[in-house]
Specification:
Layout lengths: L3 E4 H30 L8 H25 L1 E4 L14 E6 L5 E7 L10 E3 L3 H6 L7 E6 L2 E11 L2
Length: 157
């Protein structure tokens, strides 16, 4: 069984989502199905079909979350250190063409959110950064062409 790397905060978010699905969403959809059944003919009952579809989505997501949490390899970023980029690192990059700086934390695939600077470990940029140190240059193929970045700083927080 393959472990899934994630930060402690990513693990907590998945746990919170699972708890909400089980304690709020699941009972609500069961109630909606019960109410829709009371309306009679189920073959033409849109509320019933929508509630059943929602129930299927919830149950699938619960199984998915339980699997991910069971296989989670929670990495405490606060105890990591060093000059090289590894999982959990916060990396400040400078675009070599424009000198524009951007900062990303390398996180698990389920916690990534590029708008908030959380870059998935599976992303091409993250894969290119792993093992590099401050001052190194990395090239990444993007849909807009090849981009070159210089690593300005690496920190673990």
């Amino acid at each position: 069984m393959e472990k899934i790397p994630m930060t402690a905060s990513g693990y907590e978010r998945l746990q919170s989502e699972l708890k909400t699905l089980k304690s709020v969403e699941r009972p609500a959809v069961i109630q909606a199905i019960s109410e829709a059944r009371e309306h009679g003919d189920l073959s033409e009952n849109a509320e019933y079909h929508a509630a059943k579809e929602r129930q299927g989505w919830i149950e699938t997501r619960v199984v998915e979350l339980e699997d991910k949490l069971a296989r989670a390899d929670v990495i405490d970023v606060s105890v990591l250190s060093g000059d090289s980029v590894k999982f959990g690192a916060t990396v400040l990059l400078a675009d070599e063409d424009t000198d524009e700086e951007s900062e990303y934390q390398i996180v698990g695939a389920d916690e990534s959110d590029i708008k908030s600077g959380r870059l998935s470990i599976t992303a091409p940029l993250a894969r290119a950064l792993i093992g590099k140190t401050v001052g190194d240059s990395v090239e990444v193929n993007t849909p807009g062409g090849t981009k070159a970045y210089e690593i300005v700083s690496v920190s673990y927080r």
